[in-house]
Fold Phospholipid scramblase.
Amino acid sequence: YGFQAQPMGYPGGFVVPPVQNQPAMHGTIWMPIPPSIPNCPPGLEYLTQQIDQVLIHQQFELLEIVSGFETSNKYELKNALGQRVYFAAEDTNCLTRNCCGPSRPFTIRIIDNLGHEVITLQRPLRCSSCCCPCCLQELEVQAPPGTTVGYVVQNWHACLPKFTIQDEKRMDILKITGPCIVCRCCADVNFEVKSVDETCAVGRISKQWTGLVQEMFTDTDSFGISFPMDLDVKMKAVMIGACFLIVSLSF
């Protein structure tokens, strides 16, 4: 299932103007709009065009640096050519962000270059401690919004961050295992994506080292997601959701 080849107004005040081809917007080049594909959720056509890697860059927030308060995070999602594929924004209130910290519930809305919301990530308030195995983290991925395509479920482990990627029927599709220590100096932090039996590595979610100054004084991180090119497009969307869950928990 996970490896079947596929045929080839954001709310809250953020507005993205329609883009028809790939002009530069403030120095950013958008990926060309792909044609509609039968049986593919609208907006996920971008993930079917020979894409096996997505790069996620958190945007710099000056207010957060000056005030020390956690602001609503925003991200650019790009392909390997540096073209923007999606834009993502966290939809939470100030009280939730600053009181609940890494365990906060959130909704992340991912929009395409036409300004359409194509993926919605919903994370309820849950525990992230290994001492509470009955209420670990979970994230639901909808594409389009309102239609569930999969889940990312945290698995209990005494020392390792482990997750399971599931389809919309709650069937296990992939496993994710991270390192015991997720804070490293001058090195990337890799979360390995494996088959369900964990015998075969099929991809990776990486927190990329961005330099000492940026790591110490800002909250703007960069992440990479690699997956098989012929992975089901819905599971590619769920892997993007898995990256955002790992980002919120570990970084």
Summary: Residues 233-250 form the longest helix (18 residues). DSSP finds four helices and 14 strands in the chain.
